[in-house]
Specification:
The structure holds two protein chains of two kinds.
Chain A (H helix, E strand, L loop, with lengths): L1 H13 L2 H19 L5 H12 L5 H26 L8 H12 L3 H35 L3 H18 L4 H15 L2 E2 L6 E2 L13 H19 L18 H23 L4 H16 L12 H16 L1 H7 L5 H12 L8 H4 L1 H22 L3 H7 L4 H20 L2 H19 L4 H24 L6 H4 L1 H18 L1 H13 L2
Antiparallel strand pairs in A: 1-2
Chain B lengths: L22 H22 L13 H23 L13 H21 L1 H13 L7 H22 L9
Helix pairs in contact in B: 1-2, 3-4, 4-5
Classes of the chains: A mainly alpha, B mainly alpha.
Protein name (chain B): Tripartite tricarboxylate transporter TctB family protein
Organism (chain B): Klenkia taihuensis
InterPro entries (chain B): DUF1468
Chain lengths: 502, 166
């Protein structure tokens, strides 16, 4: 049994004491930034990316960064339930019914439901990841330039579909990201592009600076404009453990949420954002008491929380098999691989089996740690919500500067933080989403490289993208996704989904 | 200004924010179009080549044109008042913008001259002043705390090799 061998290799790696320790550090940090509104996993991972450069083992580094990501999904729901403010965008759905439950004095039950749902979903999704990754990596090895090009287009189109706000804006943000990705020396001809003869720009726009600027600094400026009222009433947590009846009531939604989330997480382009919304809509439709939704329905917490966590785990599948990031955090993980001298892609799973399987197994260990960290220690996390913002944002500014500088001791990268922070602020205030820009930036070079290679192979005939069946299929799905997003019926639904979160 | 479209929630504030208008679309669209045009013009100079062997400029040139088209269409919607309702550039927190951007630029400029400790302290102080309600004593204490914490984490803990003093 390959699967058993692989998983035991993974567990062996993940259970080494330093890896368990880094996993614990990761999930604890993740929970902390998840609980705190205003700083998310994207900015945190971007900040810590340079630090991992000093780690001895790439496995430990990736285990820790992954822990931050799925730990933040846990932490985000705590804030959503207790003060009706989603700590993470993905826990916006949990806030709807979770906070209503808290108002009815069921905060403990809501928190326990979220934790149990996340744990079950995390466990199942880790298995899905273990089963699906090797065959997908094999398929990916047969991909040529045209297929890769179409796959990247598909990923970008899905990220456009899922962005909040208007479709042209999301498309424009993707394009701007791609253009920023072309800054620096052209790999094929060696021509320096858009560098204004500044030597420091030859290696291109720094990824950490872009991510920190457009997510971290932009968010700080927006919070300075509209200070969030964080002193909203904190609900007290009474009994934590659910009774048998409640366990039975949550089992269905958890199972469905896990299935839905696992599937949507695999989509390149950010399916994990949509997963909790889809699960909420499904539970509402299936429920015998749909009128309870919005007024503290248990299923409205159990389903979306499971979907959310399952999708967070399976979004590693496109990363590990195709080197296509499903969301900005996965884009940062690609950066982490590269910093460690590993080229992500279908070959990693064969060349570095201990790393890949260790990472997968660590996610299960991380989920166990998260349940242990979250339920008994809930009081500690709640206290963190009382850290004033005027302490937090200067800390973020300083950490961002130190982190970015230390990647390559280049002050130009620090200047870029300020530039992208301001650009991001203007664009986000005008309704443009930063996530498609970052994905465009990461995928842009891949897009250009494969476009040029495919056109060279086909002697300049662009029909190669539609005459090769896999490539044509991928493009068709991408076009469909975009079409669905602009159709009036779907637009109304998207608006409704996003209205509900307020 | 009345907009005929049903309002999606504006990204920057509560849905009934009286500041929302479609002017944000005009700003964002124009900005994106100008950026796209700049990239396209620059790329044109790097040589386009042909579709078989693309030059260094071909790909950014094409994407730049796409961005111009998208930017113009967004800006036109904003000008006609049929765009998305957003808060746009109303009520810019100028103090925050100046202090935060200043703090980051200060860090990049000063680090190689003043060393880690002084640079971090100054950066934290300037960043603290972004908050409109903070007192100078509180800002000084806050920056002192951040400096000590950063020294402990980066110099003692992670042993980052940076110049410490001028």
């Amino acid at each position: 049994m390959d699967l058993v061998n692989n998983l035991s290799l993974g567990l062996e790696t993940a259970l080494q004491w330093q890896n368990v320790l880094f996993c614990l550090v990761g999930v604890a940090l993740g929970t902390a930034v998840g609980v705190l509104p205003g700083i998310g996993p994207t900015a945190t991972i971007a900040l810590l990316l340079p630090v991992t450069f000093n780690f001895d083992s790439p496995t430990s580094a990736l285990i820790m960064l992954a822990g931050i990501y799925y730990g933040a999904q846990y932490g985000g729901s705590t804030t959503a339930i207790l003060i009706n403010l989603p700590g993470e965008s993905s826990s916006a759905v949990t806030a709807i019914d979770g906070n209503q439950m808290a108002k009815k004095g069921q905060a403990g039950l809501a928190l326990a439901t979220a934790a149990i749902g996340s744990f079950v979903a995390g466990t199942v999704a880790t298995l899905v990841l273990a089963v699906a990754a090797p065959p997908l990596a094999k398929v990916a090895l047969t991909f040529g330039a045209a297929e890769y090009f179409s796959l990247v287009v598909l990923g970008l189109m899905i990220s456009v579909t899922l962005a909040r706000g208007s479709v042209p804006k999301a498309l424009a943000m993707v394009s701007l990201g791609i253009l920023l990705g072309t800054v620096g020396q052209d790999l094929n001809t060696g021509t320096p592009r858009f560098t204004f003869d500044v030597r420091e720009l030859f290696e291109g726009v720094n990824f950490v600076a872009l991510a920190v600027g457009i997510f971290g600094i932009t968010e700080i400026l927006r919070n300075l404009r509209d200070p969030q009222t964080r002193d909203a009433k904190l609900h007290e947590v009474h009994s934590l453990w659910p009774r048998g009846k409640e366990l039975r009531a949550m089992s269905g939604p958890i199972a469905r949420g896990t299935g839905l989330g696992s599937l949507m997480g695999i989509l390149p382009g950010g399916g994990h954002i949509l997963a909790p919304f889809a699960s909420y809509a499904a539970e509402k439709k299936l429920s015998r008491h749909p009128e309870q939704f919005g007024h503290g329905a248990l299923a409205g917490v159990a389903g979306p929380e499971s979907a959310n966590n399952a999708a967070a785990q399976t979004s590693f599948i496109p990363l590990l098999t195709l080197a296509i990031p499903a969301n900005p955090v996965m884009a940062l993980m690609i950066g982490a691989f590269i910093i460690q001298g590993i080229t992500p892609g279908p070959n990693v799973i064969n060349e570095q089996p201990a790393l890949v399987w260790g990472l997968i197994a660590s996610m299960w260990i991380g989920n166990v740690l998260l349940v242990a960290l979250n339920l008994p220690l809930i009081g500690l996390w709640v206290r963190m919500l009382k850290v004033p913002y005027w302490v937090m944002f200067p800390t973020i500014v300083v950490l961002a500067s130190i982190g970015t500088y230390s990647v390559s001791n280049n002050p130009w990268h620090v200047f870029m933080i300020a530039a992208f922070g301001l650009l991001g602020f203007v664009l986000v205030q005008c309704g443009c989403e930063p996530a498609p820009l970052l994905l465009g930036f990461v995928l842009g070079p891949l897009l250009e490289e494969n476009l040029r290679r495919a056109m060279l192979i086909s002697q300049g005939d662009p029909s190669t993208f539609v005459t090769r069946p896999i490539s044509a299929g991928l493009l068709a799905v991408g076009a469909l996704a975009l079409l669905v997003a602009v159709l009036p019926a779907m637009r109304k639904k998207r608006e409704k989904v996003f209205v509900e979160e307020d | 200004m009345s907009a005929p479209v049903p309002a999606p929630p504006p990204v920057g504030g509560p849905p009934d924010d009286p500041e929302t208008s479609t002017r944000g679309d005009l700003v964002a669209g124009s900005l994106l179009a100008v950026l796209g045009a700049a990239f396209a013009v620059g790329a044109h100079g790097y040589g386009l080549g042909d579709f078989r062997t693309m030059g260094a400029g071909m790909f950014p040139f094409l994407v730049g044109l796409v961005l111009v088209a998208l930017g113009v269409s967004i800006a036109l919607k904003g000008a006609r008042g049929t765009g998305e309702l957003t808060v746009g550039l109303t009520r810019i927190p100028w103090r925050g913008v100046v202090c935060i951007a200043g703090a980051v630029l200060l860090f990049g400029t000063a680090l190689e001259h003043l060393g880690f400790v002084l640079t971090v302290a100054l950066t934290a102080l300037v960043a603290c002043l972004a908050s409109p309600t903070i007192s100078i004593i509180r800002a000084a204490l806050c920056s002192l705390g951040i400096t000590v914490a950063c020294y402990a984490v980066f110099v003692l803990g992670l042993q980052l090799r940076l110049p410490l003093w001028p």
